[in-house]
Amino acid sequence: VPNLMGSKSVGLDWGHKKIGMALSAGFSERPVGTIPNTGGLSSNVTLHRATLDRILTIAKVEGAARLVLGNPLYR
Question: For residue 67, what is the enclosing H or E element?
Fold first, then answer.
């Protein structure tokens, strides 16, 4: 198990139309922005491919060690 203390994380707020992204390192965070969700409501991963590729590219550029997906409280 790698030691992730002090490493960067990309937080994702996954919506049907847009995905919000923020970068955190320790207790500091900054918004990265939003990207379109190309797959919408579909459960077909092929339709989400462009979105996933964009998220991974941003994570690599920012030097993030992990992705954190938000859990919606309300539907």
Answer: strand 64-69
